[in-house]
Design brief:
The protein has helices at about 10-20, 35-40, 50-55, 65-75, 100-110, 125-130, 140-155, 165-195, 200-205, 215, 220-225, 235-250, 255-270, 280-285; strands at about 1-5, 25-30, 45, 60, 90-95, 115-120, 120, 135-140, 155-160. The strands form two sheets. It has a six-stranded parallel β-sheet with strand order 3-2-1-4-5-6, with helices on both faces. Strands 7-8-9 form a three-stranded mixed β-sheet. It is α/β, with parallel strands linked by helices and about 290 residues long. It has two domains: about 1-160, 3-Layer(aba) Sandwich (Rossmann fold), CATH 3.40.50.720; about 170-285, N-(1-d-carboxylethyl)-l-norvaline Dehydrogenase, domain 2. Bound molecules: NADP nicotinamide-adenine-dinucleotide phosphate. NADP nicotinamide-adenine-dinucleotide phosphate binds near residues 12, 95 and 232.
């Protein structure tokens, strides 16, 4: 089956590679063409624009940075793909966006008789590479079943959450924990170091403790070696918390802790850490940046 894939950043390039390795024929588009080259060498083909891609496939997967990037690629630009996809084709948006945006994209798709799933993922660079992502999916059961083999090629678990926007809603819920767990752990690390402990001793003690979020252990080596090379860009953590704040406003929910964490990521961005890993928020708390 021929699949269109748009957005070949940290996550998208690895997800597309897994589809290719599982035998899917891929048509690729990325704003920066060079990022597609390794996959083109493996046999994928290139589309000159999202519009060109849309007319060549029956399923399009997007893995872009922000709602704005999705809107520009799907709808606004003269090169958008939604206008060239055929009726009954399926668009799967894996970008982390807010649920009201996903519902709007579902409406835009439906107006063109195109089916839509919001299917953001949990899991970072490593799980994306290993085909171990977790998909939170919003849309009809029938469309989930159509997409299931693709999710299985890229991930280890699929959670159908309900109608359009519910996949994105679950992702917001997931990421307000992720952002706060990172700031909470970083703060504890800074506190422990101020009390004379080493990072090594703190990790040894807390690694298997129930108070530590398990994902933090996957960052242990990076914390100990002050290696902030990007896996999950700090700027996208900030974006996700901003979208969660917007979503909470729409839903009438209060997120005081999340908003405090969000502002730490804003501060880190102002200090030039946008493109480092989101663990770089530790540097701000430690006064190292
Ligand atoms: N990294 C993670 O650990 C992780 C985990 C779960 C979910 N996510 C989410 O997954 C999505 C992708 O993350 P990522 O880490 O792969 O980000 P990334 O490496 O920064 O890649 C972003 C992608 O979006 C494209 N893009 C950005 N702005 C664009 C625009 N205005 N028009 C067209 N294309 C545009 C980029 O194109 P260029 O190559 O031309 O820049 C690139 O393909 C984000 O929504 C993120 O929140 C990330």
């Amino acid at each position: 089956m021929k699949i269109g894939f748009i957005g070949l950043g940290i996550m998208g390039s690895r997800m597309a590679a897994n589809l290719l390795n599982k035998g899917y024929e891929l048509v690729l588009y990325n704003r920066t063409r060079e990022k597609a080259e390794p996959l083109l060498e493996l046999g994928a083909s290139w589309a000159d624009s999202p519009m060109d891609l849309g007319q060549r496939v029956k399923i399009v997967i997007t893995m872009l940075s922000t709602p704005e990037a999705v809107g520009e690629t799907a709808l606004h630009g003269r090169h958008s793909f939604l206008d060239t996809m055929s009726a009954e084709a399926l668009w799967i948006d894996c970008t982390t966006v807010n649920p009201s945006f996903s519902r709007r994209m579902a409406e835009e798709a439906a107006a063109r008789k195109i089916r839509f799933l919001d299917a953001p993922v949990a899991g970072s660079k490593g799980p994306a590479e290993a085909g171990q992502l977790v998909f939170f999916v919003g849309g009809s059961d029938q469309d989930v079943e159509t997409a299931r083999p693709l999710f299985e090629a890229m991930g280890k678990a699929i959670f159908p959450m309900g109608g359009h926007g519910t996949g994105s809603a679950m992702k917001m819920v997931n990421n307000i924990i992720l952002g706060q767990a990172m700031t909470a752990f970083s703060e504890a690390l800074v506190f422990g170091e101020a009390l004379g402990m080493t990072k090594h001793a703190i990790f040894d003690t807390l690694a298997s403790s129930p108070v530590t979020a398990p994902f933090v252990n996957s960052k242990r080596r990076k914390f100990e070696e002050d290696d902030y090379a990007v896996e999950f860009p700090l700027q996208w953590m900030h974006k996700d918390l901003h979208l969660a704040a917007e979503t909470a406003y729409e839903a009438g929910a209060a997120l005081p802790g999340m908003n405090a964490a969000k502002e730490l990521f804003a501060l880190a961005k102002r200090k030039g850490l946008a493109e480092e890993d989101f663990m770089a928020v530790y540097k701000v708390l430690a006064g190292k940046q």
